Every structure is written in structure tokens, then in C-alpha cells.
Amino acid sequence: MNTKNDYHGGAMELGTPEEVWNCRIDSSGRIMLPKAMRAERHWDFGDEISLCLVDDEVVLQRTEDVLETLVKAFRTQLPDDCNLVQELIDERRAEAAREASH
User: Fold this and answer.
1) Which of the chain's termini has less CB crowding within 10 Å, N or C?
2) CB atoms < 10 A from the CB of 7, how many?
3) CA-CA distance, 56 to 52, in Å (whole number)?
4) Cβ neighbours of residue 25 under 8 Å, at least 6 residues apart?
């Protein structure tokens, strides 16, 4: 199968027949992901999976991986000498000092 779709700004090629799995939605709305797919993606029992729609397609990713990607993207936007935790602590202390003086 060589159908291409846009996916996050790049081309996504649909998998070979061995990489395409058919699933059914049960009466409770659950989908059982095939063992081979879970093993290939290193998804284990209890992993939290995030679903999102991208150009009318459902994309599944481990929530931990999504958060890691977002943190990396966010960090690249900050200067190297920026310490957000310390800035937040300083702001809270200044706010507490202002409240104490009133």
C-alpha cells in the first residue's frame, strides 16, 4: 500500500499490509489494540495513550512521548540562561512580600 497523506507537515506513507491492523469498536466504545502493534510501539499495560485528530486521521501516541516532545520544543524557545522555576519562585516571594506589607 503506497497511499500518502499529510501528517504533521510531512508525508506519511501508509504501512505495508503487515503494518495495517483492523480493530473493532465494542459496545462501550473501546478499541483493543493488537498485541503486535503494542509490542512494536513498546506500549505496555497501563500506559496512557493520547489520541488526536490530524487532517481527519486519528493519531495515537503515548502521553509521555507527547509531553516529552512538547517540553523539547518549548525548551528550544528559551534562552540558555533562563530558569523558569527560579523566576516563578521570585515572583511568588515578591507577591507574598507585597501582601504582607498591606
Assistant:
1) C
2) 13
3) 9
4) 31
In degrees and rounded to multiples of 5, residue 87 shows phi and psi of: -60, -45
Look at the pTM and tell me if it is higher than 0.85.
no
Q: Is residue 37 within 8 Å of residue 23, measured between CB atoms?
A: no
The grid cell for 7 is 501528517
Q: What is the DSSP code string of the chain?
A: ---EEEETTEEEEPPPGGG-----B-TTS-BPPPHHHHHHHT--TT--EEEEEETTEEEEEEHHHHHHHHHHHHHTTS-TT--HHHHHHHHHHHHHHHHHT-
Per-residue pLDDT 10s for the chain (102 aa) are 334 444 444 444 555 656 788 889 999 999 999 998 899 889 999 999 999 999 988 889 999 999 998 888 888 888 888 888 899 999 999 999 999 988
